[in-house]
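This section describes the prediction task in plain terms. A model, or a person checking by hand, is given the sequence of a single protein chain and must write out its three-dimensional structure as a string of tokens. No templates, partner chains or ligands are provided. The sample shown here is typical of the held-out split.
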Amino acid sequence: MENKSGRIKQISYIIKGVETRDGAGVRLKRIFGGPNTVNITDPFLLLDHFGSDRIDDYISGFPWHPHRGIETITYLLSGKVEHRDSTDHRGTIYPDELQWMTAGSGIFHEEMPKPLDEKNPEELLRANGMPTLVSGFQLWLNLPAKYKMTVPAYRSIKGSEVPVISIDGARVKIIAGEYNKTYGMYKSQYGIDPLYLDVSMDENSEFVYRIKDGYTSIIFSITGEGLYRDQKLEPDTAAILSMDGEYVNVRTGRSGYRFILLSGKPLHEPVKWYGPIVMNTDDQIREAIMDLNNDNFVREKNPLIE
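The expected answer:
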């Protein structure tokens, strides 16, 4: 656990996930996303929690669709997601695995959630402490203006490749960034310096982490109940922390708590949003729509990156 010798950040906003549908009708909770929240979550654009013990809630999936100007990070807790995209990559994401996709200048992909055992789904209703057949998260990370049209890339991250540190009643999975002098599997090359930690805390424990100066920081609650400066942190909510202060300090009482800690360098750039396309100007959005209409959206293919 890190030494604490500064001010603890305060909670500026609490955002509660809202039920919605996306893709071909997948029921999910949108924790945050869209022009209304981007100023307080910059450089993070959107966070969705998909998952249900009802197959009809997700089986329609997210059929072939485009992205441009962003990165998408899909993290699976239970079930599986079959994926294919215009970089000629196809595969299956299993529990504790991730896909980190750079849409850049343009990519098409498809993500289809399914039970882990399609023949006997009722046997898999308990995974990772969550009563779901399929459960996971998708995070959208903005790309700086100078990298909006970078070459698309796909990276598959296996659960065994993610470093895990157990210390002082907390188990920390380091997906991106650094914790306790250990670095995650993925390091961005686009200047955002993202931190993505999956933290599971025992009861009556404390988690302390120092956020880099000027970085946005977000706590997303998965299960259980945490305490932050005596404020309860409940599942499917995001606590947006103040820029003032240096430390995140999470405590637990009589129950365990699991959360994701996100942090990144804000871009402070204009955002123009058109569904799965996020650019900086209206002209760039019009160009993307024209590219879609003229079958010129995917500019170039990238060698497979896994």
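For orientation: Helices lie at 38-41, 282-293.
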